[in-house]
Amino acid sequence: ESAAINNSVKVNNYEPIMYAFDIKAFNTDSTAVVINVSKFLSSDVPSISGLNSRLRSQYKVRNLDSNRSFINSVKSFPKNIEVKQDFTYNAQQPPSNRAVGSISLQVNQSMILLPEVPMQPRIYDPRVGFFTVGQIDYSSKELKADEKRYIRRWRLEPKDPEAYARGELVEPVKPIVYYLDPGTPENLKKYIKQGIEDWQKPFETAGFKNAIIAKDAPSKEEDPEFSPEDIRYSVVRYVASTTRNAVGPSVSDPRSGEIIESDIIWYHNHLRSYRNRYLLETGAANPNARTLDTDSEEIGEMMRQVIAHEVGHALGFPHNMAASYAYDVEDYRNGEFTQKNGIAASLMDYARYNYIAQPGDENIRFVRQMGPYDHYATNWGYRVIPSANTPEAEIETLNGWIMEKAGDPKYKFGRQSSRFDPQSQTEAIGNDPIKASTYGIKNLKYVAKNLPQWTSEQTDNYDDLQELYGEMLGVWSRYVGHVVTNVGGVNEDLKKPTQAGTVYSTVDKKTQKESVQWIKENVFDTPEWLIDRNIVKNISPDAYFERLRSVQVRHLNNLLSFDRIGRLINAETTETDYYSALNLMDDVQSAIFTNGKVDVYKRNLQRAYVERLAYLMNEDSRFSNYNIDQSDVQALVRGELKSLQSTLRTKRSRAGNKVNRYHYEDLLARIDLIINPR
């Protein structure tokens, strides 16, 4: 604050005003004032509203109904104030109960006292995954206002600094403690506590013992001040809701990144999701999963790992989508390997189940667990560096820890936002998407054949069969999506200039071409096993063909997206032997219009293909990162359409039935309208 630039920052930056208050009174030396916040907290203030502008537009919100809106409660604790607002808005298209014409929601506002002395921050390095806080540093020596990012982490300080410096395990001054919600079912408490305390081992890698502890909520006699809303207590909340999810949010000091408090939220119905996917993704190789009544210990183990995953978020760790790519696909069929290493190098990956293991494989672990990356990242973020008294003084040591593991895929961090990178995919496992998805679909075929036996034949109704069949289509779609990412794929390997190689590298031509061929065989060639008559004729009266059309077209459109085609065009500027945009266009058209059976599924897919080319020809994609009109895209599309015209004329003349002849005539008419719009 003593720097001269501080005065300039104050003079030249003006913060937005949320609300203006009348001063009701001053304290004795006029250093504090009294204001009445009642109107502020009962008004529709956009900056703290539960409805953002997008939702207001989507639901056509008109205004806040003051007659049905009020402050529900105000609670004051030593370090925070919690306010609950019950707000009702008049809306033309509310998300539910439309006849009411309104949206009611409860919003919680928190005011939190920050630590008097900020924790020493740790500078973020993108090669290790952490949530961050950002600041603009105008006093930087970089000849510009420099953005600084610090990792978010709890303040762990050794009780015995000398012993810690000698490398001994020591307890922290203040451990991380999670209390269980008083409403938690008794039979689940054990697994929640295990999930929390599974992080003790990674913290031991960072030099701390008993760093994180799980406790039952105290009774009123034990602690009359206890409240889940008090930020002195972090709580795993058990929410009675039909939502299927779990989350691990936290509150951090914007000055240093110190995590002050966290509440893990577990929604009651989430175990249903895990039971279903356990059956669908492991049922072929895992006899224990072939039931709707999954063993309580197995369900408990799944819950334990989900809780540990969400606690990981609350400790500062984002998803690491590269962790499942660290292991060879064939290792997932090895019982000894999976029991030791789990199914990903990090619990923070979205690798939930081992869907690669095949029937007959023995001693397989099917559920995720803590991995080597979790120990590595915890050590990197939480180990105290005694000799470093500033964030900058830590950089050399932190970089050294990264370089020790550089090149080992078990310690690689992959960003969830890297949707172009086949090495960092959600819900994927193994280092070869083609091979992994081939195993996965082979297992799904087994499951589909047996699904009625495992569900409706046991329950004497079709409810579970219908639910699981719908989710099975989603599982199949994910496996397909993992292969699609290979096409136009770019591997991202985060590194510093001192490290060999480039950050971005294009997936090789052979892999991309094989991926398109795989998509032809598993998606474009009708996967009739997905339309099992023993299933569909018992769960729905119609739209059987639509179920398949929707998932086929989803991947066709994904394959022929502006971004993917753009990356293929881009490869021409950096590679000598590459899979080109023209290669993709030719291969996809050939796959969809190949000689063979033309039935209702194939006709739907062919129409969708022509419709997609029309989109590529005419859509003004403002969200792409290149100029569509001045790129090769429309020239390629026009060429493919003209080539297809010739193919369709031949097919029309040879059509074996009237429906197919009409179909080809319709496609020709559609293409003519695209090329020669009226």
Q: Can you tell me about this structure?
A:
- GO terms for molecular function: metallopeptidase activity.
- Residues 3-159 form the DUF5117 domain.
- This is Zinc-dependent metalloprotease.
- This protein is α+β, with helices and mostly antiparallel strands and 678 residues long.
- Among the domains are: 4-112, no CATH class; 560-678, no CATH class.
- The protein is built from 22 helices and 16 strands.
- The chain has helices spanning 4-12, 38-41, 53-58, 161-165, 189-197, 200-205, 270-282, 296-314, 335-341, 372-382, 391-405, 433-454, 456-459, 463-484, 509-524, 533-539, 544-559, 562-574, 581-592, 600-618, 633-653, 658-675, and strands at residues 23-26, 33-35, 61-64, 70-76, 80-91, 102-112, 132-137, 146-151, 176-180, 212-216, 234-239, 246-247, 250-252, 259-267, 490-492, 504-506.
